[in-house]
Amino acid sequence: MMRALFAWMILIFCCFGAVAQKENNHIRKGNELYKQKKFNEAEIEYRKALDKNNTAAKAQYNLSNTLYRQKRYKEASTILDSLSTKTKDPKELSRLYHNLGNALLEDKDYERSANAYKKALKQDPNAEDTRYNLSYAMKKLQRQQEQQQQQQQKKQQQPKDNNQQKPKDPNQQPQQPKEEQRKQQINRDEAEQMLDALNRNEKELRKKTDKQKGKDGVPASGKEW
Questions:
Q1: Cβ-count burial 119-155 (b if 16+ within 10 Å, e if not)
Q2: Which CATH number do you get for residue 23?
Q3: Would 64 be classed as within a structural domain?
């Protein structure tokens, strides 16, 4: 009985060892592909490793890096956020929060990004690259908040009764100042006077033409109106 139980235990350990070996093989392949900047292919290998062991922290962490390189920042930040609850090691937490801050920064979530960098610095106060990134995220957050305030002020400055204005009749002519109306009236009067003068000239010209016609039968040259 004991011998059979021992044999089963050995078989189980061998199975676990084989699964772990396959998992590590996929991680190693993924790492090589990552170094070659073949991030999509590296992602496939890390996911294969996770198919063997869906709790493999190393595969998850490396997968988040490939997603980040592919600009899939939301997916990367989701993985890193979940990993941060699975370890208490200060160095690992500092690295996780730093990368989380980077992913959130690229996704323009500046407030959460700054908070992630702060958590990273709590775990490793000497991380200068994290401190620099925190400063950058804070500046971006400040600028974002200023832009939001400016947009809000513009909305508040708009007249409240804009939506209550009556729609304009497309056939309605815009009202003009009285001075402009007076000038237009003068122009119309002048035009009428000129037209009358031209009509008088035309009549006189016709009379002269008729007279000349009567004398020698040749019409006088002139422009048609």
A1: bbbebbeebeebbebbebbbebbeeeeeeeeeeeeee
A2: 1.25.40
A3: yes
Residue 191 pLDDT: 53
Q: Is residue 59 part of a domain?
A: yes
Give the per-residue pLDDT at 105: 96
Number of other residues whose CB lies within 10 A of the CB of residue 188 = 10
* Site of tokens 């100042």: 177
Distances (CA, A) of 186 to 13, 22, 121, 180, 193: 109, 98, 81, 10, 11
> Cα 7 from chain centroid?
62
Nearest-angstrom CA–CA distance, 198 and 221: 17
- Per-residue pLDDT, 107: 95
Nearby residues of 58 by Cβ (< 8 Å), 6 or more positions away: 27
Which residues span the domain enclosing 31? 17-70
Residue 154 is predicted with a pLDDT of 87
Give the Cα separation of 225 and 223 in Å (integer).
6
Which pLDDT belongs to residue 26?
A: 92
What is the number of domains present in the chain? 1
Query: Which residues in the chain show pLDDT less than 50?
Result: 2, 4-19, 186, 209, 211-225
Q: Is residue 48 one of the residues assigned to a domain? A: yes
The answer to whether residue 215 sits within a structural domain is no
